[in-house]
Amino acid sequence: MKKRIFFALILLNISLVPGFAQLFSKVISSPNNKVQVSLILSEKGEASYKVRFQGKDVIGQSRLGLQLRGHDLSSRLKWVGDETTSDKNTWKPVWGEVDEIVDQYNALTLKLVTSDGLHFDIVFRIYNDGVGFRYEVPQKDKMHEIVVLDELTEFKMITDLSTWWAPSDWDSNEHSYTHSRMSEIDATWHLSDIEPFNQHIVDVHAVQTPVTMQTESGTYMSIAEAALVDYGAMHLEVDRVALRLKTFIIPTADSTIKSVNQLPFHTPWRAVLLSPDAGGLLTNHLILNLNEACKIKGDLSWIKPQKYVGIWWEMHIGKSGWNYRDKDGKPTGIHGANTANVKRYIDFAAKNGFSGVLVEGWYEGWEQWFNTNKDEVFNFTKPYPDYNMPEISRYAKEKGVKIIVHHETSAAVPSYTRQMDSAYAYMKKYGFNAIKTGYVGHIIPKGEWHDGQFMINHYNQVLRRTAQNQIMVVAHEPTRPSGLQRTWPNLMACEAARGQEYNAWSKGNDPSHELTLIFTRFLGGPMDYTPGIFQVELDQYRALDPLFDQSKANRVRTTVAKQLALYVTLYSPIQMAADLPENYEKRPDVFQFIRDVPTDWSETRILNAAVGDYVTTARRQKNTSNWFIGSMTDETPRHFKVKLDFLEADKTYEATIYEDGKAAHYLNNPYPVNIRKVRLQKGASLKINLAAGGGSAISIIPIN
Ligand code: NOJ
Ligand code: CA
After folding, report:
1. Residue 153 alpha carbon to ligand 2 centre in Å
2. Which residues form ligand 1's pocket by a CB distance below 6 Å?
3. Biggest distance spanned by C-alpha atoms of the chain
4. Contact predicate 339/386, CB 8 Å
5. 603 in catalytic set
6. Which of 359, 483, 524, 680 makes the best surface tag, with the fewest CB within 10 Å?
7. Could you read off the pLDDT of 180-199 as tens digits, one per residue?
8. For the chain, which residues make up each domain, given as ranges?
9. Tell me: the pLDDT tens digits for 333-391?
10. 302-496 — its CATH code?
11. How many angstroms does the Cα of residue 702 sit away from the middle of ligand 1?
12. Do strands 269-275 and 220-226 pair parallel, antiparallel, or not at all (unpaired)?
């Protein structure tokens, strides 16, 4: 009853706004009433919406609409009907940060018809933690195909918001983030930042999604997309004067076309995540809830959260190489993926309880890598002569370890597509069921982009075909994740951002990088960031591969304790221990945390958080009473007291605290880690001391 009166008042408000003679307007609220969306159809037949959160406008009146070839879905629209529904259910992710997720919303479908008679719907779902909406065009007789020329969706900001953004790049997500006012968004400096392998920035006043903002009243808001299938990825053009973000869909090779689709058609969901505090963004499940339920039927036990090591960092620091041959066709002598080295990593994994070993550069073709005009570069069923596949398979099996099979495609997509069946059958024959894909380079066919419809379809095809073959996927250089791991839980993680590798061969990632990533890119899904570097100064290596010269004082800009904290603060069901085994063997006491930390969780709590500055995350290991805490800061040292009121009342726990040691500092003293143990009970307070660029990692295990 109360609810109805509230609706009526809001309706009244809207119809009093001058200049908008509305044909239709309706307000719909979230189940807890804190989020309200107004949907409006003006006299000119233009659809728009507004969003309020906790009594304040967060998105002002913003345009809705699509431009199809031959059909204008943005003006002279007529209302045909509308429908309100609601739904509540609870679902269990196959792996994740929590055991169960509540999916509860109120929905409003606005049914419209264009001036030339095309019927379509705009569907809004209002959740307690945000809003999702999309366009749907049903099946229509004699019209099977549509061509999307533009999506006109806008997000109008009320004031000049504090914004954490990365540039809109059609081809790469491997940029650093900037924190500025929305009116100051300008990616000009990224144009000369040639580090990302393939970069295509067209508009310096546009950003990628998710983009995160804080309003004057303190609300945190992130604009993202969910369930990106059969459509280009959503970027946002920024009107820095009007403070309006307009959807920009990455085009197809025909730059005038955004996508071509069969009917029935719907766009991906446009998602607005809302939270009164920064930590709430990290426990927000809107993007997952907007995705479809798991499509993999039957046994899912082959999908295994895990930790892995690999023949990887040694290549990025130039100690070994991917290529087997030099330019004269002779063995380079520093090929990393040789049988003896693989066995060394298998032994290390087995000894330390890791189930995976990634091996890069094991198959023919690497000598031609970077030849970005070539379609046929790699052969995914032909190992190099020094990589004895049957023996590696036998040895791995004996040790209870599986190889994570590398499939760098060099962005030669037709070639990879032709080889998929044989490549998957080959690895399965040898007992392996996880791949790491890679798409470095310019996409073939030419003119397509990493974020365009063609590639979105390719990434989705890989998920379907690997699922049929019971293969897990870690994708590098794909588009940013949009929650598809709910539908395809064999998608363990994506890179789709600037990872640890940049510390090896570029000016690196600054101390606020990971602290911005978790509030932006990570909102759509896990990242294969590859934490755990203990030898953070890299100039101690003498690179044998001249491409990876370490004389430039490349380094990781964190303390070692912060590298430990990343295993808890950066969520992924698959986490690499990225450093060389010999570096771990030198510090077994510190390495113990990486051995202990799990990758699958029953519960997650954010104990404190500020975007780009700091975070403290507590997680309960899946189906146990064991807790793990990760805390990390940017270049500012910080001291926290956190209350452990989430522990069980009848238990005593032993906490092992791995913290920045005396005088630790990410630049001039990154190595000291102080390890201490304390007994704890529910309600205890724990002091967390973080050095500049530092972190703390804590395991809390019941002893009774
Ligand atoms: C870039 C990936 O991000 C990295 O992990 C990989 O080692 C190289 N490409 C080679 O595929
Ligand atoms: Ca990469």
Report:
1. 30
2. 312, 360, 408, 438, 440, 476, 495, 501
3. 82
4. yes
5. no
6. 680
7. 999 999 999 888 876 656 78
8. 2-289, 302-496, 502-515+536-572+588-704
9. 999 999 999 999 999 999 999 999 999 999 999 999 876 678 888 999 999 999 999 99
10. 3.20.20.70
11. 40
12. antiparallel
